[in-house]
Automatic annotation (TrEMBL):
This protein's name: Methyltransferase domain-containing protein
InterPro entries in UniProt: SAM-dependent_MTases_sf
UniProt superkingdom: Bacteria
Length: 265
């Protein structure tokens, strides 16, 4: 095996590993429920009190982030290209209806809708503040609704559409859940008839683990306060979470990493 491939393999941490993830939210920390980012109340508070995580209430301001003219959480200059890569996957799978969960500011979804105006799109989040704000600004979206991914019933994702042509998009939301919660979620999706899922996720690598450790050390020395904000996992941790329910295709492009799942039965 060439040296570059060996290094890549080692960097991918080729074994299951899940670690707790901590972030610094500065003055907004005081508003988080239980001092953690792990509830709808905390996400609402973060969106309302931290400029990097806020969702603009005016269409003009929101478009600046959605068009990558200003940088916000999950919304950067590469977003239109990421949307292109996702659009290609949707087209290859013959998808005509998208149900995106935990959309936050929905910049990626805006770019996907812009590239595919005929795609039937529902955006959802469990944070009432995000949903109310998006309803005002994301006027192209066919439907914007409150939806808690811990719901047992995922049939709202399938309303009025054949399951074969429908896909659930999970863009950087895996971080919000424990492995057991994710296992239960995939079972619930499968039981509700969801056939296609695209997971776009951060994968924990050796380099990422090291830079996280150094960053945390420096910030601790500066006296910054860390807040629990979910879980990070290595690539190998993911597939067992949906076990025998879904067939897995790994998605590894220059801009997105993740998994495309297709129901086995
Ligand atoms: C890390 S942010 C990702 C936002 C967006 N997808 C992106 O990549 O920029 C996680 C989002 O998931 C939402 N979320 C967390 N737990 C959720 C749940 N149980 N059901 C639905 N949404 C949830 C939060 O409100 C937040 O908007």
């Amino acid at each position: 095996m060439p040296a570059k491939k060996i290094l890549h393999y080692i960097n991918s941490l080729p074994f299951p590993l899940t670690i707790r993830h901590y972030s610094v939210f500065g003055a907004a920390t005081a508003f988080l429920k239980d001092g953690e980012l792990y509830s709808a109340e905390s996400w609402d508070a973060l969106r309302m009190n931290h400029p990097h995580f806020s969702i603009a209430e005016s269409r003009e301001e929101w478009l600046k982030a959605a068009e990558s003219k200003i940088k916000k959480d999950g919304q950067d200059g590469a977003m239109p290209l990421r949307a292109e890569e996702i659009s290609r996957i949707l087209n290859e799978c013959g998808i005509s209806s998208l149900f995106s969960v935990g959309v936050g500011g929905a910049g990626l979804e805006y770019q996907i809708k812009k590239a595919n105006p005929d795609l039937q799109m529902t955006c959802s989040d469990f944070s009432p503040n995000s949903v109310d704000t998006l309803k005002k600004v994301f006027t192209e979206c066919d439907s914007i609704r409150l939806f808690d991914m811990k719901n047992k019933d995922w049939s709202p994702a399938l309303q009025g559409v054949s399951a074969d042509k429908q896909l659930v998009l999970m863009n950087h939301v895996d971080i919000e859940f424990t492995n057991n919660e994710l296992r239960e979620m995939f079972q619930n999706m499968h039981d509700s008839g969801i056939r296609n899922i695209l997971i776009v996720c951060n994968r924990l690598t050796a380099r990422g683990l090291l830079s996280r450790f150094v960053d945390r050390l420096i910030r601790r020395l500066k006296g910054e306060h860390f807040v629990f904000a979910g879980y990070l996992r290595t690539k190998k941790t993911f597939p067992p979470l949906w076990g025998s329910l879904y067939q897995t295709t790994e998605v590894e492009t220059p801009l997105i990493s993740g998994f495309l799942l297709k129901s086995k039965n």
